[in-house]
Each structure stands twice: as structure tokens, then as C-alpha cells.
Design a protein that fits this description.
The protein is mainly beta and 342 residues long. Helix content is 5%, strand content 47%.
């Protein structure tokens, strides 16, 4: 039986990893590489304090988790702040519910909230802790098997919504590092983790997470290289069937890549905080397209990306903070305009 499972697994990897167009007949057969112009300092230094999350709603407005001000702010695509400012304790990562267009946010490290962009009503979806997560069948990306595994969830990381209405969030789960949690009808279930811990303890954290328009989840796990060592790799994972998965061929990122955004064509933009870079990855080829260094920003010592969101027009918004958080906890938002080159 195990032999047959492995055969099935690698057939699925072949179809989804090497031929991603098999996910859906409308998937483009080749990736169109983006180029970004700018950036423009669209929210200048002085308003935000250590922003940790950003999301763009279907109207094109972007929402920022103004973390150390305990606020979520809304801006137009030109950077004008809307009147609506919503108070939450320690808002961090943000995403969009694909099925509704509602805004998602993690607050106080354990609670997931939904914000209706039309009414600005905010509701709590669930609070996730180690005692509330179903761990009856968790997929280990290293062994390739699903089995019960106790995961002590300490805090939540990046968040995004899937087309079917489910919500996915990364989580710091003790010494096993990153885990992926699925929220379905308010109930939390752990679906995947890595049984390896990073070689550098500083890299133990919930990693970035993004969900594409086909429901594939992109995150990072520590994987065995087969040479008695491990590497942090970008990973594609199907929520409906964990055997549909594939690590990308290039590491491309550090263990501190904690935020990301993805566009409709499957281009993944990863905020690699320790390296002060935006890593641009094609989910079609699994290869790095480009790496952009965050420019110097007047008033900030070491500006670094915390989270990334992509607008309906392809514009890329980056929540920026100081690498080591200055005493003023300064933050800003950069906007990159978008073009393509064949």
C-alpha cells in the first residue's frame, strides 16, 4: 500500500509540479515575466508604526496592519487614507477572502478577523491555539505521509483565502517550525508541517503563505536535502490532497521570509525580511525571476519588506518597516507599478 501511495504521489507531483497547466485548462501554458517600475513611496514615513501586513481588496484599495499603533488603515490606490480606521490589538498579517472579497487579518497573534470592505464591519472568525487545532491527520512534507501529530500552535503568521471559501494561515508550532492551518466553517485543522527544524534557531517562525486562484497554497518548509542537511524551500501544496505537492527547485529565500502576495498569473512575490529583498518566483517553473532590494527611505535606518499584496491591476504594494525596529517603530508603504515582458 505504501508503495502504491508513493507511485501516486510522484505521478501527482509530475502533473502539478512539472505541468502546472494540468491544474485547470484555463491556466496559461507559459509564464509571463513581470517587471516592476518604481517604487513610489505611497505612504510616507511618519504615519505607520512597524506595519506587519498588507492586503488589496477587489476595489483596488489597500489595507495596512499598523501593528504598533493597534490599527488597521485603509488607503486608495493613490495612497490617500480613507476615513475608516479600525482598532485591533496587535494586527499583523493580512489577506483577502477570494470567495467574498472580504479582508482577513490576524490580530493578537491568535485571532482571525474578517472585515467587510463595504460596511467596515469586523467579525471574529476563530481564535487558534494549540488546544483548538485538529491534528488527527497532518501531512509531513519530509516523510510524505499523513498521520496524527501533536502541534502546539504558539502564534499565527501569514493568511490568505481560497476560492472555495476556506482560509489558510501559517503557524509557529513549537520546534517543528512552520505549519499550515486550514479554517473551514470556523474550525481549525492542521494539514501540513515539516518534521525538520531549521538549522538556525533564529529561522524558527511561521513562514509566508499565499493561495492562488486554483486553490494551491504556497509557503516555505525546511526540507531534507538528502545529504544530512536541510534547506528552506518554497513549497506548493494542495489542500484537498496533500499528495499533490512539490518543493520548488531553488531555495531563493531565507528563513525570515514571512509575508507574500500572488497575482492572477501565478507570480509569487515574497518579502524576505532579513535580506531586505523582494523575491519574485514563477509558480509555473518554480524558478526565481528576479530579486529586488528595498531602496533606502529617508528617515528609516534599514528599510525591509514585511508583507506584500498585489492589486487587481498588477501593482505590487509592500509594507516596509525598519529591519531591527528603531525606537520610533517607523514604517511606510512602497508601490511598484507593473508591466510584462515576454
Amino acid at each position: 500500500m505504501h508503495h502504491n501511495q508513493n507511485i501516486y504521489k510522484w505521478l501527482c507531483v509530475l502533473l502539478v509540479g512539472i505541468f502546472p497547466s494540468c491544474r485547470d485548462k484555463s491556466t496559461p501554458p507559459t509564464a509571463i515575466e513581470p517587471y516592476l517600475t518604481g517604487p513610489t513611496l505611497i505612504v510616507p514615513v511618519g504615519l505607520l508604526k512597524s506595519p506587519r501586513g498588507i492586503a488589496v481588496d477587489p476595489s483596488g484599495d489597500f489595507w495596512v496592519a499598523d501593528t504598533k499603533n493597534d490599527l488597521i488603515r485603509r488607503f486608495t490606490s493613490s495612497g490617500t487614507q480613507r476615513d475608516s480606521v479600525i482598532g485591533f490589538t496587535l494586527p499583523t498579517c493580512m489577506g483577502i477572502e477570494q470567495s467574498t472579497g472580504n479582508v482577513l487579518a490576524v490580530v493578537n497573534n491568535t485571532t482571525i478577523v474578517r472585515i467587510n470592505p463595504s460596511t467596515h464591519d469586523a467579525t471574529i472568525i476563530t481564535t487558534v491555539s494549540g488546544t483548538t487545532v485538529d491534528t488527527s491527520s497532518v501531512y509531513d512534507v519530509n516523510s510524505g505521509e499523513s498521520q496524527p501529530h501533536a502541534l502546539a500552535v504558539h502564534s499565527l503568521g501569514d493568511i490568505d483565502g481560497a476560492p472555495n471559501g476556506d482560509i489558510f494561515v501559517s503557524a509557529l508550532a513549537g520546534s517543528v517550525d512552520n505549519a499550515v492551518i486550514q479554517i473551514h466553517s470556523g474550525s481549525a485543522k492542521a494539514i501540513a508541517f515539516s518534521s525538520l527544524a531549521p538549522s538556525n534557531p533564529a529561522d524558527i517562525d511561521a513562514k509566508f503563505l499565499a493561495v492562488d486562484t486554483y486553490g494551491m497554497i504556497y509557503t516555505a518548509f525546511v526540507l531534507s536535502t538528502g545529504q544530512s542537511s536541510a534547506a528552506i524551500r518554497v513549497y506548493a501544496l494542495s489542500a484537498s490532497n496533500p499528495f499533490l505537492n512539490e518543493p520548488f527547485p531553488e531555495p531563493a529565500i531565507s528563513g525570515g521570509a514571512l509575508g507574500a502576495g500572488i497575482d492572477a498569473s501565478g507570480i509569487l512575490f515574497i518579502a524576505d525580511q532579513p535580506l531586505q529583498q523582494i523575491v519574485i518566483v514563477s509558480t509555473i517553473s518554480g524558478r526565481t525571476i528576479d530579486v529586488l532590494t528595498i531602496p533606502q527611505i529617508q528617515g528609516m535606518t534599514q528599510p525591509t519588506p514585511r508583507d506584500i499584496a498585489v492589486g487587481p491591476d498588477g501593482s505590487v504594494y509592500v509594507a516596509v518597516g525598519d529591519l531591527f525596529d528603531s525606537a520610533e517603530l517607523l514604517g511606510a508603504v512602497l508601490k511598484y507599478s507593473r508591466g510584462t515582458v515576454e
